[in-house]
Amino acid sequence: MSDSKTLYTAHVLVTGGREGAARSSDGRLDVKLSTPGTSGAGTNPEQLFAAGWSACFEGAMAIAAKARGVDLPDALAIDAQVELRLGEDGYALAARLDVHVPGLDADIARQIIEAAHRTCPYSKAVKGNIDTVVALV
């Protein structure tokens, strides 16, 4: 990747871990963190990952659709689920994206989803690293 050009760098400072806070250098992100399954008032890394991946994936879908001359519906939605798992080898993540593309032909929607999954930076990052499912629903 030495020939790649950095387009953006996110800088977030986390203090206190899962019971702390996260704040971006520009102040746009400023959230409390809580451990999943507790009564804490904050979000958790799994929710943040789900939001980040699904937003990025929708952007990759828009690029794939444009390349095919297809307009995506305004009602497009991605239901992202990120699981925190504990097994014999420790903690791991698993993720699922259920992609809703109402009004678009299913074959065309699948082609766009497959193209997005090949090009989305989050999809590339998780490929082969965690259990993932990306499905048209």
UniProtKB/TrEMBL annotation:
<dbReference type="GO" id="GO:0006979">
    <property type="term" value="P:response to oxidative stress"/>
</dbReference>
<comment type="similarity">
    <text>Belongs to the OsmC/Ohr family.</text>
</comment>
<dbReference type="InterPro" id="IPR003718">
    <property type="entry name" value="OsmC/Ohr_fam"/>
</dbReference>
<dbReference type="InterPro" id="IPR019953">
    <property type="entry name" value="OHR"/>
</dbReference>
<dbReference type="InterPro" id="IPR015946">
    <property type="entry name" value="KH_dom-like_a/b"/>
</dbReference>
<dbReference type="InterPro" id="IPR036102">
    <property type="entry name" value="OsmC/Ohrsf"/>
</dbReference>
<protein>
    <submittedName>
        <fullName>Organic hydroperoxide resistance protein</fullName>
    </submittedName>
</protein>
<dbReference type="Pfam" id="PF02566">
    <property type="entry name" value="OsmC"/>
</dbReference>
<feature type="region of interest" description="Disordered">
    <location>
        <begin position="19"/>
        <end position="40"/>
    </location>
</feature>
